[in-house]
Structure prediction request, 239 residues.
Amino acid sequence: MMAQDEARWRQEIDAWLSGPASEPPPGVASNFIDGPSLHDYNVACQTICLTVVTLLIVIRIYTKSSILKSLGWDDATSLGLIAFSIVIAESDRYGSGKHTWDVRGSDYVVYNKLANAVQLTYTLVILLTKVSILLLYFRLFSPTRVMRLAIHVNLWANVLYYVVGFFLVLLMCNPREAIWDPYVENVKCLDPRAIRITSASFNLISDLAILFIPIFTVWRLQMQRKKKLMTIAVFASGL
Prediction:
C-alpha cells in the first residue's frame, strides 16, 4: 500500500512539473507558448537600466581612479548592482511576467529559486550601498560629534537589520526547499507578507534618516539658499 501511495504521489508531482503551476481560471486555458506576458517589457526595462547603471559605474570608477586618484573600497559596492541585475534577468527565462497557469511547474520551481536569490542579493546590495553612503558622509562632511553619532546609529542599525533580514529570507521555510517546492511536506514558513511590509517600512525610514544627514549639514553652510536646495536635491536624487 505504501509503495502504491508513493507511486501515485510521484505521478502527481511529475504531472505538476510538466503541467501548469496553478489551475487557470474558469474558461481560461493554459498557454505555455505565447500567453499574456510582461516579459518583453521586463527585458526592455532591465536592459535600459543595466546599460545606464553600467555606464555610470564605468564613469565613476574612471574618474576616481584616473583623475581624482581616490578610488576606495566603497566604489566596488556599485558592482553588486550589476550582479543583482543579472540574477533578475535570469529569472525572466522561467516565467517572470507571466500568469502562473501559463508557466510549467518545472519552470516555476526554478523561478522561485531565482526569486529567493534575488531577495538575498538585494539585501546584500542595499546594505553595501547604504554603508558606502554613510562612510562617504564621514569623509565628505567632517562631521561634528552629533553628526558622527547620527551616522553611527544609522550605520549599525542598517547592518543589524539587513544581516538579520538576510538570514530570515535565507531560512524563511523549514525545510528550505519549501520556498520553491510546493510538494515538500511538514513545512513551517514565516509570513512573507509580514517580511515584505517590515522591509518596506524600514527602507523608507532608513532612507529618510540617511537623507536627513546631508540636509542638516548643508543647511548650516554659509551659502545661498538656492545653492543649498540644489545641493540637497543632488543628495536626494542619489537615494
